């Protein structure tokens, strides 16, 4: 239940940077995060997409954007210091829009960048990295012999990850010799380090260095069997779930003040966007009701009739279980399937109805598991008809409607 929206903002160097906001479809996000992609990857990489959407599904809004010179962002490929500055610009843009970020997540060089940027983002409360190098000079090793040409000629075309990039001298100067060790040591925020022991691009020794340099609270989790780029769906989802679970802990304190909950026994229903979606709130629970896509909805929750059937089914099962416990019956499990249908006049010989009036029926099939006698089973089926919701549905029910102003 998430939505993806375009998000453009001005980077530190004045370039327009192209991003995407992954948002919970309903309700106010309980926190905001920024995802920094790997070197030469982009906002639409597998890791960026899976992780940001996993967080959005848990109520955390996430911005993933292209650094300068990549994807939909303008300019030439930026160096490390420029990427750090653009992360700060992203945080400022979100804060100006009322979405101050509390979590930074970075993949590969993006992981190093979020560590360096975190100290300049006052609202950020925690940082997570995936396959991050412990020093920025590591990325320059991928340029190989081209470094000399770049420094002499001012630029050179270098093949990286199967693509050609024009690397300029500014990139090298902007990346070389950054004091990453100081940034790690002085982070001062909870840090989650994810790294594959078999990472072929950034060795796991970098994770060890980051972990040993950082102060607590810090955590390390091995992404056993994963590639550096998380190209395998299973490993990408695993990393996403880990960060989502860990990040949720540090998101709780940023929840925007919520609507006052209804009193016990009262259910509140509020439109939630889309054609049919409704936000259902009780004293302690929230969920979405919707219609299936075949009826024009988004299928983000049970339908009104699903809820009606669930109400009868749960009440029936609770009542039978309570009776069995009180009578010492060995009832192990109750399984109930219910179906609602209309216009059963032809099949309902024992129904009392006026001619022409639509008849509605609920078919309820009950399966009982346990060491029960025939007499006990018959009694439990009798008790099923005595559940409170069953009685309410079959009673002369009056619904009183008033407008609240």
Automatic annotation (TrEMBL):
<dbReference type="Pfam" id="PF02566">
    <property type="entry name" value="OsmC"/>
</dbReference>
<dbReference type="GO" id="GO:0016787">
    <property type="term" value="F:hydrolase activity"/>
</dbReference>
<dbReference type="Pfam" id="PF12146">
    <property type="entry name" value="Hydrolase_4"/>
</dbReference>
<keyword id="KW-0378">Hydrolase</keyword>
<protein>
    <submittedName>
        <fullName>Bifunctional alpha/beta hydrolase/OsmC family protein</fullName>
    </submittedName>
</protein>
<feature type="domain" description="Serine aminopeptidase S33">
    <location>
        <begin position="29"/>
        <end position="131"/>
    </location>
</feature>
<dbReference type="InterPro" id="IPR022742">
    <property type="entry name" value="Hydrolase_4"/>
</dbReference>
<dbReference type="InterPro" id="IPR003718">
    <property type="entry name" value="OsmC/Ohr_fam"/>
</dbReference>
């Amino acid at each position: 239940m998430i939505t993806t929206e375009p998000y453009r903002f001005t980077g530190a160097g004045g370039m327009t940077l192209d991003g995407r906001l992954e948002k919970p479809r309903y309700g106010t996000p309980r926190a905001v995060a920024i995802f920094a992609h790997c070197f030469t990857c982009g906002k639409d990489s597998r890791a960026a997409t899976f992780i940001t959407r996993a967080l959005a599904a848990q109520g955390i809004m996430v911005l993933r954007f292209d650094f300068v010179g990549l994807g939909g962002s303008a300019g030439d490929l930026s160096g490390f210091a420029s990427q750090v500055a653009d992360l700060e610009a992203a945080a400022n843009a979100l804060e100006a829009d009322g979405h101050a970020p509390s979590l930074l997540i970075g993949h590969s060089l993006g992981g190093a960048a979020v560590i360096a940027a975190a100290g300049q983002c006052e609202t950020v409360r925690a940082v997570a990295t995936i396959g991050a190098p412990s020093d920025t000079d590591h990325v320059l090793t991928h340029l190989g012999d081209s470094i000399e040409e770049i420094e002499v000629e001012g630029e050179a075309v270098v093949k990286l990850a199967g693509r050609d990039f024009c690397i300029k001298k500014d990139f090298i100067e902007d990346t070389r010799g950054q004091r990453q060790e100081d940034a790690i040591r002085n982070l001062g925020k909870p840090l989650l380090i994810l790294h594959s022991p078999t990472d072929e691009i950034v060795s796991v020794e970098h994770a060890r260095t980051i972990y040993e340099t950082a102060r607590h609270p810090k955590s390390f989790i091995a992404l056993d069997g994963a590639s550096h780029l998380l190209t395998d769906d299973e490993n990408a989802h695993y990393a996403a779930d880990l960060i989502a679970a860990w990040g949720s802990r540090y998101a709780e304190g940023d929840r925007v003040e919520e609507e006052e909950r209804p009193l016990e026994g009262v259910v509140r229903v509020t439109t939630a966007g889309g054609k049919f979606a409704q936000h259902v709130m009780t004293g302690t629970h929230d969920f979405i009701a919707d219609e299936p896509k075949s009826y024009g909805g988004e299928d983000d929750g049970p339908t009104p009739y699903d809820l009606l059937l669930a109400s009868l089914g749960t009440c029936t099962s609770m009542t039978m279980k309570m009776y069995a416990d009180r009578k010492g019956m060995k009832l192990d499990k109750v399984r109930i399937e219910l179906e609602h249908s209309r216009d059963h006049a032809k099949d309902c010989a024992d129904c009392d109805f006026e001619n022409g009036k639509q008849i509605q029926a609920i078919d309820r099939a009950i399966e009982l598991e346990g060491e029960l006698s025939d007499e006990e089973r018959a009694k439990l089926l009798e008790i099923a008809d005595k559940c409170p919701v069953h009685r309410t549905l079959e009673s002369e029910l009056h619904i009183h409607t008033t407008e609240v102003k």
